[in-house]
Every structure is written in C-alpha cells, then in structure tokens.
Amino acid sequence: MKQILILTKKELKGYFDSLMAYILIVVFLGLSGFFTWLYGNGDVFFINRATMQPFFGIAYWTLFLFIPALTMKQIAEEIKTGTIELLLTKPVSDWQIVTAKFLATLSLIAITLALTLPYYITISNIGEIDHGAVITGYLGLLLMSAAYISLGIFASSLTSNQIVAFLLTLIIGIFFQILFGMLSMAFSGFSSDVFAYLDLQSHYSAITRGVIDSKDLIYFASLIFAGLAASELSLIKRNLH
Hints:
The chain is mainly α.
C-alpha cells in the first residue's frame, strides 16, 4: 500500500507539474458553470427549480471527453520513452503501477469536482434542494469517471501512441455510453437485457436520481476491476517480452 501511495503522489504531482491539470480544471469549471447557470432551456434559472441535475448532465458528457485526454499518456508515453521498462524493473508490481495511475487520475477528477461545491451551496440557498440526490449525483460522477479511467489506462497500455490511446478510449466509451443502450432497444429478450445491463448511462442515471441499487454498484466495481486487470495483464505481457 505504501508503494501505491508513493506512486500515486508522483503521478498526481506530474499532472500539476504540467498544464494538464490546470487546463482540465479551468475548462471543466467554465463549461459546467456556463451550462448549469446560463445556457438554454436546461439551466437552473430556466427550469426555475433548485436542483443540481443540469450540472450532473453536462459534467457527465464533459468528463466522458476529458478522461481519455488524461489517461492517453499514462502508459503510452512511458512505452514510447522507454521509461516503462525502467519502472517495471523497480520493486513494484504491475498491479501497483496500474492502481497508482488509476488513483492519481481519479484524485484529479475528485479535486475538480470538489471545486464545483460552490454551485451546490449557491443553489441550496436559492431554494429547497434534494441533498440526497446531490450526494448520489457526485457519487455517480466519481463511479463513472473511475470506470472510464480504468478503461483509458487499459487503452494506453496497448500502444505507444497517445492519439491512438485517446481514440481507443473514446471508441470503448461510445460502446458503454451510447451503443449498448441502442442495441438493448434493437433486440429483445435475453440479448436486450444483457445490452441494457452493459449500458453505463442507465446505471449512472439511476444513481443521480438518488437511487443506490446494489446492481449499479456491482456494475461499476466490475467495470473498474476489469479495466485495471486488463491493464495489468497488458503490462505483464510486455514485461515477458
């Protein structure tokens, strides 16, 4: 555990040593604030109700696009520069490396989301707000982010090209975000049920509505573990060569 924490701090510091973390935070706060407070028929003032749902809606899609940009370099850059071989020779396991990169990226997302708490405070002062739905909404964003981060790290472990890693993460994300939901409507019976369960958006929507079901938690935990396990296997295979 100590090794994971040391590596996590190093990875998180790397984000802030570059412009990546600051760009993410500024752009995310700008986009989410604009669509939550000012834009169109979905903002707080237009619907005339004290709710964080406009924010959770735009944050969901914004993070879907931002996370591949954060994870694309996690392993791909180290493969390209050759530092992955040096890292693999140190007294740390492949699982510790993958977990540390995962936790560092998730920590950055958590910091970014924490900076949106003034939205919640302001809206709660405007009117009566469902505090439980707000808590589960943030939980949903963290679980969704964790799932995509694990998949993004896996995509990054497959190539030395960051752009390829970015596109692979997006393609995988589109399946979970859009295509599985469409396939569940196109099929019927058991196939429809399988595709419906794989649809990430349905699980996220259920949580943000304030409903915490064990099947949703198991879904996200399984997806996170699968992504990290696949990343570890990819590193093991590379280490064998």
